[in-house]
């Protein structure tokens, strides 16, 4: 009787330990789309050659949409100094650099004042995206005001920026 009970106890222990080992060794990887895609709230800074200090704008939104594979569309709209600025980067490429996602792409910036027709400019995007960290995207328009850089940072602007 003792041998049967001991054998049964040993069998239960072995089965339980096998089950736990499989779950402990199971690697769960979120799809890239889940980490990259989304609508993100934050603030932006606008820096241009003729402006001595970058201009801060709060309550900004960037939208990143998965297209196919490692390609994503990025859109950002802001109102800066009375101008409406729309940035559209279609098919930005996401790669892994130093354990973080790097997003890079080319697209267009459209600037308009009031009811005027928007003017189109070339724009580039570079940024880093890391799960659990604020997204930071840098849009550059080399022909606007002698070179313009708009930096979007997810989250609330720190008091030192305001």
CATH architecture: Beta Barrel
N-to-C span: 78 Å
Residue fraction in strands:
over 45%
> Which of globular, elongated, flat, extended, rod-shaped describes the shape?
globular
Strand order of the largest sheet: 1-2-3-4-5-6-7-8
CATH class: Mainly Beta
Strand element count: 8
Structure, described:
This protein is α+β, with helices and mostly antiparallel strands and 162 residues long. The chain has one domain: Lipocalin (Beta Barrel), CATH 2.40.128. It contains 2 helices and 8 strands; from the N terminus they run ααββββββββ. It has an 8-stranded antiparallel barrel. It starts with a helix and ends in an 8-residue tail after the last strand. The N terminus is likely disordered.
């Amino acid at each position: 009787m003792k041998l049967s009970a001991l054998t049964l106890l040993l069998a239960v222990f072995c089965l339980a330990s096998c089950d736990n080992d499989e779950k402990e060794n199971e690697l769960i990887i979120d799809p890239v789309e889940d980490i990259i895609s989304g609508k993100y709230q934050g603030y932006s800074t606008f820096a241009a050659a003729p402006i001595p200090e970058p201009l801060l704008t709060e309550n900004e939104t960037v939208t990143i949409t998965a297209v196919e594979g490692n390609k994503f569309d990025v859109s950002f709209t802001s109102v800066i100094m009375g101008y409406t600025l729309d940035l559209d980067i279609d098919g930005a490429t996401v790669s892994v650099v130093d354990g973080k996602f790097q997003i890079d792409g080319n697209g267009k910036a459209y600037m308009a004042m009031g009811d005027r027709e928007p003017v189109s400019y070339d724009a580039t995007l570079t940024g880093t995206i890391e799960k659990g960290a604020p997204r930071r995207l840098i849009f550059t328009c080399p022909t606007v005001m002698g070179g313009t850089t708009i930096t979007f940072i997810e989250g609330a602007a720190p008091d030192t920026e305001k």
